[in-house]
Amino acid sequence: MPIRVGFVGVGGIARRHQSYVRAIEGVEIAAHCDLMPERVDAAVFEFGGKGYLNFDEMLANEKLDALYICIPPYAHGEIELKAAEAGIHMFIEKPIALSLEVAERVAEAIERSGVICSVGYQLRYHELIPRIQEELASEPVLLYCARYYCPMPPGGKPWWHRKSMSGGQTVEQTTHLIDLARYLIGEISEVYAHAAMRYYKRTPMNDVEDVTAVLFKFEGGAFGTLVSTTVMESSWHVEIDIVIPKRRIELIGNTLRIKDGSVEEITAQRDWYGEIDKVFIEAVRTGDASLIRSSYRDAMRTLAVTLAINDSVEKGEVVRVKI
Ligand SMILES: NC(=O)c1ccc[n+]([C@@H]2O[C@H](COP(=O)([O-])OP(=O)(O)OC[C@H]3O[C@@H](n4cnc5c(N)ncnc54)[C@H](O)[C@@H]3O)[C@@H](O)[C@H]2O)c1
Which residues contact 289 (CB under 8 A, 6 or more apart)? Predict the structure, then answer.
């Protein structure tokens, strides 16, 4: 029997997951749900399966083994609760919610039902991560410095520009680099941040800060920084730079450089982006949740750090991460 997969939210990121999921043997893309009929039609046309404009209707009509939840940050909560209740395994895009209260309710429902859940922090599956982990295994991390420079997301995502709907750049986007910091180094205990709209004009439709600078402290003693902006014209620059005694480990896109006087450069050899989908489907097929590198509870801790950063921006003070 094929694994029957449904999608709720079939915008930009869902289409990418669908391409990877379709290529996995023994999987059937059975159903798509979105509030926008043209997106449902396009997904059905390209990937097959049935289309729905209402999640409850999809749930009532389809027997799904797994559900991809690819909706905007503000929309999380009820869909996950219903899917957990129905015993459907879930892949949930980051950020998992905009508040820890919503996330806690979902986490409890997932634990009650015992479904497998993977959160979309795909950098944990980056091909070069094991090489970084090898470097970090025997040395203390001293500094973690991350940069995320990009343009504003193109049209068609009005929710992105409203902080109440997206959470802003840190909660929605640079969360990847906070999550990677936690994955590679350990828990973050304290944050201090500044953020502002320095370039774009604040309007009722756009109140997301376009520059952010964060300083943080890991429980293990390392310090970290994260600077980000949305003011680039078209280019993206996403970088982490980890300092250990006598060495720098720099990952920019698909290139890892280990610098200690000389430079060792390693480039990713394969398309690792779909690895997160392969692992999720394998976990569903085998029932082995230990394959998943980003569980819901773990993603809650990343959410807590990004919310603490927003809190620090508002209060202008150091904030201890609560969770
Ligand atoms: N892992 C990554 O690298 C990555 C990349 C891009 C986006 N994302 C995340 O994926 C999520 C979606 O982003 P996107 O770029 O696909 O956004 P999008 O706006 O292109 O698509 C979201 C879709 O969800 C639909 N939707 C909203 N509420 C719904 C509901 N209640 N029922 C059914 N459909 C609903 C919208 O109509 C829209 O079509 C965001 O949280 C974003 O952060 C992750």
Answer: 116, 283, 295
Please indicate, yes or no, if residue 46 is contained in any of the structural domains.
yes
Nearest CA-CA partner of 262 in 248, 273, 272, 274: 248
Q: What is the DSSP letter of 170?
A: I
Over the stretch 118-169, which tens digit does the pLDDT of each residue have?
Answer: 999 999 999 999 999 999 999 999 999 999 999 998 777 999 999 999 999 9
Is the pTM value of this prediction over 0.90? yes
- φ, ψ of residue 155 in degrees (nearest 5): -55, 170
* Pair (280, 233) in one structural domain: no
Any domain includes 80: yes
- 80-124: per-residue pLDDT in tens? 999 999 999 999 999 999 999 999 999 999 999 999 999 999 999
Does one domain contain both 106 and 180?
no
For residue 255, report the distance from its CA to the centre of ligand 1, in Å: 28
| Owning domain of residue 84 | 3-121+274-291
- The CATH number covering residue 184 comes to 3.30.360.10
Pocket test for ligand 1, best of 10, 34, 273, 293 (most atoms within 8 A of CB): 34
111: domain CATH number is 3.40.50.720
CA angle 155, 156, 160 (to 5 degrees): 85
Q: Is 103 in the pocket of ligand 1 (CB under 6 A)?
A: no
Does residue 204 have a cis peptide bond before it, meaning omega lies within 30 degrees of 0?
no
pLDDT digits (tens, 9 = 90+) for 240-257: 999 999 999 999 999 999
Pocket-testing residue among 17, 33, 35, ligand 1, by greatest number of atoms within 8 A of Cβ: 35
Over residues 6-21, the pLDDT tens digits come to 999 999 999 999 999 9
What's the total number of domains in the chain? 2
